[in-house]
Amino acid sequence: MVINSTLFSVRMHASRDQRHLSGAEDLVLGTEVGSAAQTMLRRAWTHLPQSVSVTIDQVDAAALVTGRLSDLTLASVVDVAAGRQRALSELQKSGVSLLAANRALVAIAAGAAPDGGVMRGAMLVDAGSGERLEPDQSRGVRVTRFGVTSATKVDCERLLAAHALTHHRTREALVLSAKVLAAPAVIAELCWSDDPDYTAGYVASKSGGYLRIPQLKNMGDSRGGRAFFLAAGSDPASAIHFLEQTPFLVTTIGAVHREEP
Ligand code: AMP
């Protein structure tokens, strides 16, 4: 079984003029490191980068945590306003206060970094007070050292394709959010992409699974971001350590449901 074998974290980051262009992340067997790095480099090259780094680290097998993808629900909304309203009510259902949900949503919509730009990582938000808890508000907290077994990747792609979800972002966001929801104190996540051509985003929570919302921003908008909500009053240190350091491997897929329009 793969979990008894040595695993490596492979990470790619492409940039131009110090600006983030593209990133990717996987956790693979030694024999798969070359092809994983090559796939990432191919992706980086489509963004005309000035600088690309690929980092490879053996992971600590004793620290490995395995998990399952959340069940995915495909929401149907008529426009961005309805999409954002749906995100707010889903966050409230998962235990986030309206104040905290709204603060995070407004921050992502405006550009959550101090200069109004896009953060490299995620905000950490107290689910009660809405206070931001990440130590660096430009960088945020980066989730790394996660991946999915090759067999589960194939199953996941097949299941998503049956629902016409063929963009690599959907699978990658599902895997990232599985790790986020496994972190201590995290109760929910809000995300939409900074890619101006990609308007979908999601709310994921321990209680409600992963709700994909097709419109969380308008086409052409290059603002996006992530907020991880921590149970009110939690200390963020152990969540940060888990998100950044603990290797996390998805070994099982979830189900997919489509809501009627
Ligand atoms: P993306 O879906 O890749 O466009 O990412 C949307 C936003 O999520 C980015 O602008 C970052 O703020 C944040 N983000 C991307 N990757 C990560 C990560 N590995 N960990 C935490 N936040 C991330």
Question: Mind explaining what this structure looks like?
Answer:
- The protein has 261 residues and is an alpha/beta fold.
- It folds into 2 domains: 7-59, no CATH class; 66-258, no CATH class.
- It contains 6 helices and 13 strands.
- It has helices at residues 33-45, 80-93, 98-110, 150-161, 168-182, 237-245; strands at residues 7-16, 19-29, 51-58, 65-68, 72-74, 123-126, 146-148, 186-192, 201-205, 209-213, 225-230, 248-252, 256-258.
- The strands form 3 sheets. The protein has a 7-stranded mixed beta sheet with strand order 6-11-8-9-10-5-13, with helices on both faces. Strands 2-1-3 form a 3-stranded antiparallel beta sheet, with helices on one face.
- The radius of gyration is 17 Å and the shape is globular.
- Adenosine monophosphate is lined by residues 23, 118-119, 121-122, 142-143, 176, 191, 193-195, 224-226.
Number of domains: 2
How does the helix and strand content classify structurally?
alpha/beta
Strand order of the largest sheet: 6-11-8-9-10-5-13
What's the oligomerization state? Answer: single chain
Order of helices and strands: EEHEEEHHEEHHEEEEHEE
Bound molecules: adenosine monophosphate
The residue ranges in which pLDDT falls below 50 over 5 or more consecutive positions are: none
E-strand count? 13
Ends apart, CA distance between termini: 42 Å
Residue share in β-strands: 25-35%
Helix content: 25-40%
The main pleated sheet reads as: 7 strands, mixed
The radius of gyration over CA amounts to 17 Å
Shape: globular
Number of helices: 6
Overall mean pLDDT: 95
